[in-house]
Structure formats: structure tokens, C-alpha cells
Specification:
Strand content: under 5%
Shape: globular
Order of helices and strands: HHEEHHHHHHHHHHHHHHHHHH
Number of strands: 2
Distance between the termini: 21 Å
Radius of gyration: 22 Å
Largest sheet: 2 strands, antiparallel
Structural class: mainly alpha
Helix content: over 70%
Strand order of the largest sheet: 1-2
Number of helices: 20
Length: 489
């Protein structure tokens, strides 16, 4: 937030302004990565009591391994998107408010990950959403700006419902502090307002995550963004909704809400199928990739709905994979536009011959998205399938398999249209100096994704620790109350 304010006061776009943004996000990323490794290794949490209020009053911030993983991913994604913007165009080519608003967006996202209070989560979401509304319309032309209105409308409704849910939660639990709510979870099972509260909260965050049937706002809104912003939105924004669903259902709400878990699993299955059908129907790169955001969110929702320790580990593992892969694929789409002048697959081609490195990077990420072993996307899907079969959810597992096959088919459309097809009459713009550094950046992201897949045992251990600690309501409550009782850190 401090950087956002400084960048807002530093009005004139410049190289130095961009460097400051990259330095700050780089520092945040390194700090979050080291924190995640340390917390996972020691199975502990960091708790900060703001204002020295005693429990359950005041605002508390909590970083456990799950939150630290999400902080690492948000910082890494923001950093790569800022670097991409540097190579994509000069400082004068971007709107002066783009970087400050991106940092306000990052503020809301990171606060959502570390807050230990439901109302503070609402505040975090409003910071995030107001920034996202602004960025979505900031550089959109008159033809595209209309696609921002559904995004704005559905999220305003979601924010209103969220505020209502906060009121109901206070009525049920007597507090909005996550630790206090978790300590009361076994005592409120018979409260008639509990199903209404749980259902309302799930509705709110299913809207934020883009789950069926509440996803209609997403596929047409993300493609209107500038490429680096679109990549950041594709990688991070819907995952905030998934994270909050995971956090509330594991750490805060009673674990006995089986009807809610089952509903979420079936919503995930429907999202997979309808999302991937939308991807198959599109003929331009950003449209295909936007629908794939939805279908992949379905896998995460299914994993949460299965609600076993291994399924929740699979969800965390899948989030790690998807944020990196999806952001890099959006950047590939931007580079295709740079080389072909468009991302319409009817007017692209010749890229495999012109730049085989970009083609290899795309193939690695596309096959990972489809779940081909031993790439990063395979391991999360394998665990989801395994837990789904163990739970007897054969229809949902079948839906997940079908979605995976159709994902591969739709990604092959991009491969055949942009890389394998002959070059269009306009040719490939190899004289554009931007494509080489952009390809190098995408290659680095592909290597990170490849390392996750090949070194999955280490990543699995961290994800498993994060999932188990998120489910440990007693440990979370004890850690927070110890600090709240002391009034410090």
C-alpha cells in the first residue's frame, strides 16, 4: 500500500518508476517464499495483533503456510507481469495509473490472504475489487468497455451479499474473528441460521471464484485488459475466491457441513464441463484461455468439495500449478499478438518455424494445463481423481476426465492455428524487437512450472503441510488466542 501511494504521487510514467515497482514486488516475493518455506518446515504460524485489543476484539493478521504460499504466488505473478510490461512497450505507452492501481490491487489480494477477521476480509475484497474495476476500464476502448459492466454488476451484488453474511455471522458466532468463530464451530451446529450463513458465504465466494452458474462475467471481461494485466488477473483474481472458500470451510466453519461440500463438488464438476465447452467454441487465444480459467477452477472446487486431507492438498498443489501456468499462457497470447498482429486463430500462423522456443514453452504449459505427466498439472489432477474414486464420486471423476481431454483439444487449436499453420500473408513480425525478451521471460516461467512438475515431492510436502494446518482449527485458535492474550506479536 505504501508503494501504491508513492507510485500514485509519482505521476509521470518513467523507467525509474517501473524499476521501483519491480524492486518492491521482488522483495515481497522473496520475503513470502522464505516465510512459506520456514513456516512449512516448522509447522507454525505468524500472528500479529493490531491495536493490542484482547480476544476476540480487534484486527488480527495471520500467516500460516497456506497464506504464505498464496503471498509468494501473488508476488511472483505481479513481478513477471511488470517485467513483461517493460519489454512490451515504453513507459509512455501505459496509463500513468496502471502501476499504482496494480499495487492497490495487490494490497487487497495480500490482505485477503493474511486477515484473521471476516469483516477485514470484506475490506480487503473491496480494496481489491475497486482497483480491479478501475484497471479493467482504464485502457479499454469504447468497443470493449461494455464487457466490464457484467463484471462490475455481479461483484457489486456479491459485495452486498458479503456484508449481509457478516451480519448473520456475528449473530451466529458473536464475533467475526476467525479464531473465535472456529472455537465456536462445534457449538453452533444446531443453530438454524448456520446453513443460511454457510450457503450465503459460499455463494459470495463462488461468484468471486467464477463457479457455475455464476461465471458469465469472466470470459468476456479478462480479454479486454492489456496483456500483463490480463495475465495477472487470469493467474490471481479467481484464486482469491478459491483461497477464501478453502480457508472458511477448513479453518473457520464446522467440518460437518457435508451438504455444502457436496454442493461445491457438483458446482465444480459443472464448471469444468461448461468452461471447457466455452473454450472449444472460441477462435481467439485470449478467449480460449479465459474459458480455461473457469474449467480449471472447477478442479479446485471439486478438490475442496471432496474435503479429505489429500484432496485439500491436491487443491493447494493445483493452485500453485495453475497460477503460474495460466499467467504464462496469457503472456504467450500477448507474444502471439506481437508477432502476428492478432490472436485470431484464423489469421495467425508460422510461429513454430519463426520461434521454436516460444512453441516449446507453449506446448509445455498447454500439456501441463491438460494434465499430461510428469508436468505440474498432472499431479494435482491425479490426486483429485484418486480421492474422487475413493469417495465413490464416479460421475464427477468422469466429468474431470472429459474436461481434461477437451482441454487438450482446445489447446491444440491454438497450437495448430498459431504455431503449426503456415504464416499469414502479413508474415511474422520478427523485426519487432520485443518478441525476444518476451519469449525469454515466458521461458523462465515455463522452467518454474517444469521444476514444480519434476520436483513435485518437495512441493507436495509444503502443500500437504499447508492443507493439514488449514484444517487444524484447534491449532489455529490456540496460536491466535495466545497472541491476542498478550496483545502483541
Amino acid at each position: 500500500m505504501a508503494s501504491a501511494i508513492l507510485l500514485l504521487l509519482w505521476r509521470k510514467p518513467s523507467k525509474s518508476r517501473r524499476i521501483l515497482g519491480m524492486v518492491v514486488t521482488g522483495f515481497l516475493t522473496l520475503a513470502a517464499v522464505f516465510t512459506a518455506i520456514d513456516l512449512a518446515a516448522n509447522a507454525t504460524r505468524l500472528v500479529l495483533n493490531l491495536g493490542a485489543w484482547s480476544a476476540p476484539l480487534g484486527i488480527v493478521l495471520v500467516i500460516d503456510p497456506l497464506a504464505a504460499i498464496m503471498l509468494s504466488l501473488s508476488g511472483f505473478t505481479a513481478l513477471t507481469c511488470l517485467i513483461y510490461a517493460v519489454f512490451e512497450g515504453t513507459p509512455k505507452a501505459e496509463h500513468p495509473l496502471r502501476i499504482p492501481l496494480l499495487f492497490f490491487l495487490l494490497t487487497g489480494i495480500n490482505l485477503s490472504f493474511i486477515t484473521g477477521d471476516l469483516f477485514n476480509l470484506f475490506v480487503a475484497f473491496e480494496i481489491m475489487l475497486i482497483s480491479s474495476y478501475s484497471l479493467l476500464t482504464l485502457e479499454a476502448d469504447d468497443r470493449n468497455v461494455k464487457h466490464a459492466f457484467p463484471y462490475l454488476a455481479i461483484n457489486l451484488v456479491g459485495s452486498t451479499l458479503f456484508l449481509i453474511a457478516c451480519g448473520i455471522a456475528y449473530s451466529v458466532f458473536g464475533s467475526l474473528n476467525f479464531a473465535h468463530m472456529a472455537s465456536q464451530s462445534s457449538q453452533v451446529l444446531e443453530n438454524p441460521l448456520l446453513p443460511a450463513l454457510a450457503g450465503l458465504l459460499m455463494l459470495v465466494f463462488c461468484v468471486k471464484a467464477g463457479l457455475f452458474p455464476l461465471y458469465f462475467w469472466l470470459p468476456n471481461s479478462y480479454p479486454i485488459l492489456a496483456t500483463p494485466l490480463g495475465a495477472f488477473y487470469a493467474g490471481m483474481l479467481t484464486k482469491v475466491g478459491v483461497y477464501v472458500l478453502l480457508r472458511l470451510l477448513t479453518t473457520v466453519m464446522p467440518h460437518e457441513l457435508n451438504y455444502l461440500h457436496q454442493l461445491l463438488a457438483w458446482m465444480g464438476g459443472a464448471t469444468m464441463i461448461f468452461g471447457v465447452i466455452g473454450a472449444v467454441s472460441r477462435h481467439y487465444v485470449r478467449g480460449i484461455l479465459s474459458f480455461h480459467i473457469l474449467s480449471q477452477i472447477g478442479y479446485m472446487a471439486l478438490a475442496i468439495g471432496l474435503f479429505t486431507p489429500l484432496a485439500l492438498t491436491a487443491c493447494v498443489l493445483y493452485i500453485i500449478h495453475h497460477i503460474i501456468v495460466k499467467a504464462s499462457l496469457f503472456l504467450v497470447g500477448g507474444t502471439i499478438t506481437c508477432l502476428n498482429g492478432t490472436d485470431d486463430l484464423n489469421r495467425t500462423g508460422g510461429l513454430w518455424k519463426a520461434t521454436p522456443v516460444l512453441g516449446i514453452c507453449f506446448l509445455l504449459q498447454a500439456l501441463s494445463l491438460a494434465g499430461i505427466p510428469p508436468l505440474s498439472g498432472f499431479w494435482g489432477k491425479f490426486l483429485i481423481f484418486s480421492e474422487g474414486l475413493a469417495a465413490g464420486e464416479y460421475v464427477l471423476v468422469a466429468a474431470a476426465l472429459i474436461a481434461g481431454i477437451l482441454t487438450l483439444y482446445s489447446m491444440l487449436k491454438i497450437w495448430l492455428g498459431a504455431f503449426w499453420a503456415p504464416a499469414p500473408e502479413s508474415g511474422v513480425r520478427l523485426d519487432d524487437p520485443r518478441w525476444k525478451p518476451l519469449t525469454a521471460l515466458i521461458s523462465s516461467m515455463a522452467l518454474v512450472s517444469l521444476a514444480i512438475g519434476l520436483g513435485v515431492e518437495w512441493v507436495f510436502r509444503i502443500a500437504n503441510t499447508a492443507a493439514l494446518m488449514a484444517m487444524d482449527q484447534a491449532g489455529y485458535t490456540r496460536a491466535v488466542f495466545e497472541v491476542l492474550g498478550k496483545g502483541g506479536l
